[in-house]
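Table S2 (continued). Query chain:
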Amino acid sequence: MSSKRALLASSLAISTTASWVVGNDQHPAFAEDHLAGMDADPDQEHIAQEAVIQYLNPISQVAEGNLAATVETKPLTYQVKNGDTLSSIGRFFGMPYEDLARFNRLENPDFLEEGQQLNIPLVRKWVRLKFGDTAERLAREYKTTKELLLHLNPDLDKATYAGQLVAVPQKVEIPKQSSPVPVEKENRKNQMKLVKGSVVHFQGSYVFRWPITGQITSNFGWRHGRMHKGIDIWNAAKSQTEIHAALGGTVVRAGYAGTYGNLVVIDHGGGWVTYYAHLSRIMVSKGEKVSTGQQLGYMGQTGRATGYHLHFEVRKNGKAINPLLVLK
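Corresponding output:
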């Protein structure tokens, strides 16, 4: 800094300090009014403003070296709380829930678990406050909300000063991802057609029926840090509840299978397979042809099960999909 600049910065800092000592009730940023009375030399005004900022925030100036904004590379994160939905989280961060689902590769956007951590396609962009800046003005300038700014800067509504670093949200590009449910050509047999973007109907013979009636006690998706590849259905009749084939096909497995307990697996052709787990009793055998609605056995709690229920899976080409998308 030239001797002229050093002298100006020094005198400005001294006059500011003196005002605090004698009890001047004017805000420390009164220097802006003082500067307004100086000659309208842009260079001098810029020097004076830098001096005020450096005096009020000297540590950050030394650490950062300049007034330029910086952008972090690590996305924001959010821990799911009780009552949260992907839609409500998306509204808070200013984006469609579909973007959140795609960014986190969620197979079932309707299933969130308390404590689950989501990555948000936003990063912090650090900018410096100017004289007169408020949370409302920043929200308008950076096309966000005051609530999100306060989430990123909890002290923003308290005493602030020109030159202070604050974080504003900046969107990051979301990698393109193919749909988890493939769509067949229109004239192909057993075609799948997407309706309203989420519900899937099957033409021809591919209409999956509910294997039992009852109450869903666990949905498809992440559960306790592990992927739950099906749905659990409970019925008050417990071991007297009959389990039926959701669609006709060939039994490719019928017997005990570790954590699945007594398991029946049916191959329906076209890459479609259904699983029926935790049965108390199996009434079909491997290689047997079964029809839609045929009884396969009875509900049980064999294998790793916390109580009586049917664990039901639907797989397409070896990949588990949400049964609620295909059941009718």
